[in-house]
Amino acid sequence: MKNISSFFVFIIFVSFGFSQAPKYYVMDGTVDKYPIRMELTVETSVEEGNSEMIYNGVYYYKSQQIPIEISQSSLKGSQLELTTFVKYDSEEEPEIFKGKFDRGNYKGEWQKGKQTLPFELKPADPSTYTAFGLNKSKRVVHAATLKDGSRIEGTYEFEYFLPEDKNFKKEMFHQIISADYNDFVSYTNSEFNAFEKEYKEEIQSYIDEGLGDDPMTATWNYEHFSKLTPYFNSPDFLIMQLFGYSYLGGAHGMSFQEFFNYNKKTGKWIDINDVLDLNNQKEILKVLDKQLRKEYNIPAGVNYSDAEGSIFISNELSLSENFSLSKAGITFYYGLYEMTPYAYGFFELFVSYENLKPYLKKGFEF
Prior knowledge:
This protein is an alpha+beta fold. Helices cover 16% and strands 42% of the residues. It starts with 14 loop residues before the first strand and ends in a 10-residue tail after the last helix.
């Protein structure tokens, strides 16, 4: 059972962000003749009194079921444009969906470079996915007012998509968020009480040390953000993505992401030892190493960081227990600075089941 680290503690009072428009869409359709599913979450961004709907999510071809992340790049009226992410310094062209979006009906043109194809999506059959509702909360905590009148404040925000089914919501909360709480409200209220005390004491200690006139006081305005969203939602499997961001002073904040795989057929959460025979860990790591070298053109025997044009800062590859499953294979995820510099973001490595076949647990299937 996994809990959020106390490093990412947040203070929030809860307000449930339900409105007439759904906050989560699951759509089935095609790009040209190829069947796909698209899953979108909808959030409201408010800046200078103006509100804007923001669409983010994934899409995947049903033959592979490997989620491809997409985010809103333009929204003008009902015309929605979504763009896929590309790796840092990559010359690869992004994929772009452009078309009319109306409450789960999305039709238009898919584009990658000079290639264009028609696409059409319609709301999926509700029996083929798990329904979710958005639980959203935010609080600004005032810690101190300095002599020059500037306010020291910390901003804390939660955006959790949780199952509408009460029993599954409780189970998911225990598995991903906290074993000590059954619901969003009691958890966030408890976290508020704990963090408020620690944050105010920390800022007061800086002031007591005479640092209130330091030009770096702006770095005392901490930020915390936590987001839980469905990453893959099929009739048989569910994958959740937990993302957290924390700024505690310094040049930049730090983020983490974690994935949780759930088998709807068995009603069980899946750990890496449910998929791979870890008695063969050395052999499994050789498979991962071979895949990494192939993907990044690193010859055998050459350190990752020594290869020409290398993006790596590490020369060791671990068997990450942070992973997501698909029909085609396993994607392993690594934290910031674990394999590559901060600017490259989270490093991930996809390895096919075919390459891992000798080491798959007997009876495992996706």
